[in-house]
């Protein structure tokens, strides 16, 4: 505080430069760092219970919490990913060999459509099998090219993924062990009022817990239920379709219906009436109600954000940050609202005398 103004400005410039430089170094592994922080926040209550049962043994408590995290979260995700890759590869091979003929399936649906729907398809040149196959072959070639590109990309980024995964686990251990003291030091270094810091930290942790628990629980529930009904009805690749439904359920206003509705339509159009009716009823009254019941309970009450803000922030976050954006987007939106609430309330608070 007693430094010369020039020295203060020089130090602030140096502080800004080294902070930006350190952020640039960490940016390459921002996903691993972010998910390490998220898992540390989610499993912090469990770690506190571990510490109560293991007083003075911080390393052992953090290691036990990390082990529980591996068993509950990471191991199941690994097994699902392996099954997903196997089923996706099997379906791709059937498509490539012609065992699965999408053109024939579409033609069966077209033949069962009413006259007005066929007239609409005639305007789009989609009524003959040759035309359908021609358009689908174009789509399939583009999809095959995309799959091949992604496969090469995954092979090239295997080492990067392993390194990032190791960084996440390593960081998670230390965040569990030293998270409270680290948060205290960051809070002391942040030039904000104590009440404002508490408000922002509370909003940050609340939104992360609500978003991750709510979205992941809803997505996992819808994906599991969708995969189960597909398996019961004998549809190939139930794990693949279940994972796709779980992924789509992360997107507000889209949902798992983008997968099961076309399948139900195909069943009804091709004469498999009971399969179509069962899938439709299950999709509407079971898969659909999971989202309507669980999401408001797990997300809405904690975040206290309007639905349209959650929708826009989730889609925008995923557009910028990828899959991780379904958490980052709502968190940024919540902090934006909290900061503006502080900014708006600060002048009125300044007019009142300070509390004793």
- Structural class by SSE content: mainly alpha
Assess the beta-strand content as a share of residues.
under 5%
Mean residue pLDDT:
75
Please provide the ordered H/E string of secondary-structure elements: HHHHHHHHHHHHHH
Task: Summarize the biggest pleated sheet.
Answer: none
How much is the radius of gyration in Å?
Answer: 26 Å
Number of domains: 2
Question: Helix count?
Answer: 14
Number of separate strands:
0
Helix percent reads: over 70%
Q: Uncertain runs with pLDDT below 50, 5 residues or more? A: 351-356
Taken from the alpha-carbon principal axes, the silhouette is elongated
Intertermini distance: 27 Å
Please give a structural write-up.
With 356 residues, the chain is mainly alpha-helical. It folds into two domains: 135 residues, no CATH class; 152 residues. It is 85% helix and 0% strand. Helix 10 packs across helix 11 and helix 13 crosses helix 14.
Give me a quick take on this structure.
It is built from 14 helices and no strands.
Topology, please?
Blueprint: H1 5-27, H2 30-42, H3 44-53, H4 58-97, H5 102-111, H6 115-123, H7 129-156, H8 158-189, H9 194-232, H10 238-249, H11 257-269, H12 273-303, H13 307-321, H14 325-350
Helix pairs in contact: 2-8, 3-4, 4-8, 4-10, 5-7, 9-10, 9-12, 9-14, 10-11, 11-12, 13-14
Question: Which descriptors would you attach to this protein?
Answer:
disordered C terminus, 356 residues, mainly alpha, 2 domains, 14 helices, 85% helix
